């Protein structure tokens, strides 16, 4: 087997479920210091997004699971306004939805998955 060298950019996940977390401005300083140019966040926390406004970091922003029901209820435009458009100088590279929704039954899955796919295909695209 032969491995080839690939040139790419380093990205780091920025989670918020822990204790003793560094301040968002310190996280940004660390990213800059280590030449990390891509970040993935799991929820759109305004206090975490604020320092990124004028950075050169490409952001992958995930829709919080708690927002999924609202998005299906035709609130995609409001979500995009609040979490994307209010940061016009940020470099959003992707907006993602979790692939494991934590649904317990097939009924729950059907109630959320079909409308969620519709929202992702139409409402998000229109809102952006």
What does this structure look like?
The protein is an alpha/beta fold and 128 residues long. 42% of the residues lie in helices and 16% in strands. It has 4 helices and 4 strands; from the N terminus they run E-H-E-H-E-H-E-H. The protein has helices spanning 24-33, 46-49, 68-85, 106-127; strands spanning 11-14, 38-41, 58-63, 91-97. Strands 1-2-3-4 form a 4-stranded parallel β-sheet, with no helix packed on it. Helix 3 runs parallel beside helix 4 (106-127). The mean pLDDT is 76.
The overall strand count is 4
Structural class: alpha/beta
Number of helices: 4
Instruction: Please give the order of strands in the largest beta sheet.
Output: 1-2-3-4
Stretches where pLDDT falls below 50 for ≥5 residues?
A: none
Average pLDDT rating: 76
- Report the biggest beta sheet as strand number plus sense, adding barrel if it closes: 4 strands, parallel
Query: Percent helix among the residues?
Result: 40-55%
Global outline: globular
| Strand percentage | 15-25%
Separation of termini? 44 Å
Rg calc: 17 Å
Question: What is the chain-wise order of helices and strands?
Answer: EHEHEHEH
